Amino acid sequence: MPAPLTSAPPPVGRVRSTPLGLARAFRVAGSPQILRRTTTSLRTAPADPLKICIQRAGRTVLHQGDVTLTLEPGQLAVYDTGRPYALRLEGAWACTVMTVPRDALSVPQRVLVAAMRHAFGALAGPGAVLTHLLETAIAAPAAEPGPDGSGAGRAATGSPGRAPLGEAGAFVTPHLGEAGALAAPHPGAAGALAAPHPGEAGALAAPHLGEAGALAAPHLGEAGALAAPHLGEAGANLLAGLISAEAGPPADLTDEALRVSVLAHIATHLGRPGLDPASVARAHHISTRTLYRLFEGADQSVAETIRGRRLDRIRADLAEPALARHPTMEIAALWGFPVQAHFIRAFHARFGMTPAAYRRRAAR
């Protein structure tokens, strides 16, 4: 018997993802549907990274708190997975998505909060470079290790009511059915629409764009698995550049703005052997005394910040299955620890175990 004219086909979706160090990139597409991250899903599957949705086709209406944003192709938005939200996905939609820890963005909290209240352009400036970087990483062969360790990228197609888009964390957590309603096309117009902002690279975005653009040039497949963390940092810095450009330059260069710039510089140059307080001060045209003053009262000094972030990156790489065949010291040297004895002492002091012991535990 023919289906009633009022019936709607069940929603379906597909996702492809690749790890980029602390970040992760996704290509997600599907039929019209509504995805919700509810207070229940926050309790059962807590997570709090930021997500960046770049609209490639169709339309997305994002509701979070008192904010409603509509994304057309060529626009992007930033939202917070630590709070409930709803996404209405319209038409034959497709999005490129990045997840990134909030502490990976070296921007003031007030600037980040303001950035989540409007859409940005993704056709020029840092937004365009970020889109290209993520698409390149996702498209690269061997970007996502398969179950057999072959490195084949993963693609999933959703079944009615259980489309596993959220499995990879692209929009919601483990399964859409657990995270909230999964609905057919929702009629009617969205609420208040945020005016799109071009998000062009300005004076504050230029340093982020230059550094991240250089890192984004190689294809992930050509650079190999060790390039992935650099691409993730490049993506985070491009996003920071986009947000900083929107915020505009401060009336005067406050200590907070200068410290944010210093932290962004450190994050971008972690793999460079010459990164130290003196090189950071030179890059910002300030004295080392001024640099040290910026970190007075902070939990860590400049040198401790550099060392700690390098060790954090090494620990993340040691736990990454895609890097299992790379020797520990090869990874350590990539992040500025070429001397084995020094590296082992520093790693043990920070994490309470040797790199070998941590790697064995992470592989279980």
Task: Describe the structure in your own words.
- It is a single chain.
- The protein is an alpha+beta fold.
- It folds into two domains: about 230 residues, Jelly Rolls (Sandwich); about 110 residues, Arc Repressor Mutant, subunit A.
- It has 14 helices and nine strands.
- Strands 1, 2, 3, 4, 5, 6, 7, 8 and 9 form a nine-stranded antiparallel sheet that branches.
- The radius of gyration is 21 Å and the shape is globular.
- About 40% of the residues are buried.
Features:
nine-stranded antiparallel beta sheet; globular; 2 domains; 364 residues; disordered N terminus; alpha+beta; Arc Repressor Mutant, subunit A; 9 strands; Jelly Rolls; 14 helices
